[in-house]
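We now fix the convention by which a protein and its fold are recorded. These numbers are not coordinates but entries in a learned vocabulary of local backbone shapes. A record is reproduced here so that you can trace the correspondence yourselves:
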Amino acid sequence: MSKTEEKVEKYVQDIKEKFGEDPDVDLLRKVTKACGPSIFNSDAETVSSSSPDELETVKKNFMVKKLGLKDDENLDAGLELIIEKYGKSNRNKYRAVVYYLLTKFYKKEAVFN
């Protein structure tokens, strides 16, 4: 099993445990690959929801550039909803999982096909 596949398995378990749902593994795999090498860096692998700069990076680099969403107040609301769902007190919000959840929330799965 490749290192990327090991990460995907870890993220599948995280989604099952924290959200009680079975993820779309194919989509999760594509989102994980789109994260690039950041998933192999322990600091970059997670999203710090307490950092406004980090949340702005997620909005600009993923939500606007990758998903093609319009940069408006709806992005803040959607991102906040995902962070709340993941658990604000949860220190390990995996970037690939956050991106996967945002992709599903905004119904932008086609971006990864």
